[in-house]
Write a sequence for this structure.
C-alpha cells in the first residue's frame, strides 16, 4: 500500500487520485537536492522559453537524453517510455532520490519557472509528482476552477497533484522556482483495491 | 450610500473594505471600452516590462501625463494627487466610464499583463477597483494566503478588490489581459457610518 497523506480533498469522481493534493513522505535532504541540481545545471542548461526543462529519465539508447522528453506530450513518445535514470546521474543524489520513491517514476524532469511567469492554464493526462527543490511562499499551484491555491514546500517530500484538474503554476517571487516533476507508474493502478492511494 | 455587492467575504477586521471582492454595477459597454482602449494604445504604447501601464488620470499640468504615475508607489507623488482625467481622453468612452462611477477615482491606469506572466506577490496600501477590458477565464487574481482565486469578468462593471491582502494576478492565457485599475476616493471613508461599503 502506498501511503499518500491527502492534504486537499477532491470532488472529482473516478479521477486518478483520491484527493487534489497529497504528500508522500520521502525524507530527502533539501540541501543535497539543491546542491545536486546546481551541479547538474552547470553542465546542462535548461532550455525552452519560460517552461524551461531538463530530462532526468530517458528512453534506452536516446541520442538526446537531456531534452528529448521536454516537448509537449503530443510531440513525444508515450510518457511511460521515459523510464530509465539518465546514465550521467548514476551515483548522484538524484539516483538516491529516485530510489526513495515506493514506486517507479517516468518522464522525470527538472522544471524551472522564471520569476514573474506562469504556465498556461491546462490539464494534464495524468496526476504528477512534484518535489520542490527551490521555491518560495510566492510560487503556488493554482487550481483555477477548484478555487484552490497550494504551495509545495521544499521539504524533501513528494507531493502528488491531481493535475488532470484545470491548473497552472505561477512564480510571483524574484527568484527561479525549480521542481523535480515526474509521473507515477502506479497512476493506472491507483484506483484498484490492491494499490489504491490511501486516504488519511 | 455606495452599493457594493460583496462576492467573496473577508476575514480581515478593520480592513479598508467589508469583503475581499465586491462588484459595483456600472453598466458600461464592454465592446466600447475595448474599442476605446485599442484606439488609445495605438497612440500611446504601454511601457514597463511585464507590468505594462498607461496613466489615465494625471496631476494638473503634468509634463509626462501618460507615464508619470506608472512607477512604484514609493517613487511617485501620493496616489490621490493623480485625480484629473488626462485631457486627451475628454470626449472618449473613458470619460463616460469615469463619470459612471458613484465616487471619484484616483491614479486610474490601464494595466496590461502579458501572456504567461504574473505580478510579484504583494500587498497594496489601498483597495483597488478593476474594470476588465480584455481578459479570459485563465487570468485570475490569486489571494495567496486566503486561498481564493477570483476571475474579474469583462462585463462592464467595476470590481473592488481588497488588495491590502497578499495577492497577485496571473495570465495563463495566450492573449494579453488588459484592466482599467484605479483607487477609489471613498476608501478612507468606507468604514465610516456615512459612506460605509454596503454589504449585501
Amino acid at each position: 500500500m502506498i501511503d499518500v497523506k491527502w492534504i486537499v480533498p477532491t470532488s472529482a469522481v473516478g479521477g486518478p487520485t483520491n484527493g487534489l493534493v497529497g504528500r508522500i513522505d520521502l525524507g530527502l535532504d533539501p540541501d543535497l537536492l539543491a546542491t545536486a541540481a546546481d551541479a547538474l545545471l552547470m553542465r546542462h542548461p535548461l532550455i525552452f522559453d519560460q517552461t524551461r526543462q531538463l530530462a532526468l529519465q530517458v528512453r534506452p539508447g536516446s541520442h538526446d537524453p537531456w531534452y528529448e522528453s521536454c516537448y509537449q506530450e503530443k510531440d513525444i513518445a508515450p510518457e511511460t517510455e521515459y523510464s530509465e535514470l539518465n546514465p550521467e546521474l548514476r551515483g548522484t543524489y538524484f539516483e538516491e532520490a529516485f530510489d526513495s520513491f515506493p514506486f517507479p517514476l517516468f518522464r522525470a524532469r527538472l522544471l524551472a519557472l522564471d520569476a514573474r511567469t506562469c504556465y498556461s492554464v491546462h490539464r494534464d493526462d495524468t496526476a504528477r509528482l512534484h518535489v520542490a527543490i527551490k521555491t518560495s511562499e510566492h510560487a503556488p499551484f493554482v487550481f483555477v476552477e477548484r478555487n484552490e491555491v497550494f504551495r509545495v514546500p521544499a521539504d524533501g517530500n513528494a507531493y502528488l497533484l491531481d493535475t488532470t484538474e484545470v491548473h497552472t503554476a505561477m512564480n510571483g517571487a524574484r527568484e527561479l522556482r525549480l521542481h523535480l516533476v515526474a509521473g507515477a507508474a502506479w497512476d493506472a493502478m491507483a484506483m484498484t483495491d490492491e494499490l489504491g492511494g490511501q486516504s488519511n
